[in-house]
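Check this.
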Amino acid sequence: MNKIWFKAKKYGWGWYPATWEGWVVILIYLLIFSVLIYIFNLNIEKFSDIYFISVFLLTVLLIYISYKKGEKPGWHWGDKK
C-alpha cells in the first residue's frame, strides 16, 4: 500500500503534511536546519559556502521525499466545478 504523506495544496504549487509520517519528516527537517544554524552561526564567515550548500541539499531532500510520498505536483486553482 502506497500511503500519501503529503497532500497537494489547494491553491498554488506544493504540498503540506497529511499524516504523522509527513509531520515527522517536516520536524526532522526543521531540527536539522536548526542544528545547522547553530553550528554555522558560530563562525559563519569561514563556513558560509558549506552552510548554504548544506541547507540547499537538505531542502532538495525534503522536496524529493515530498514528491515521492505525496500527491502529483502541479498548479492548483481551487476546487474544480
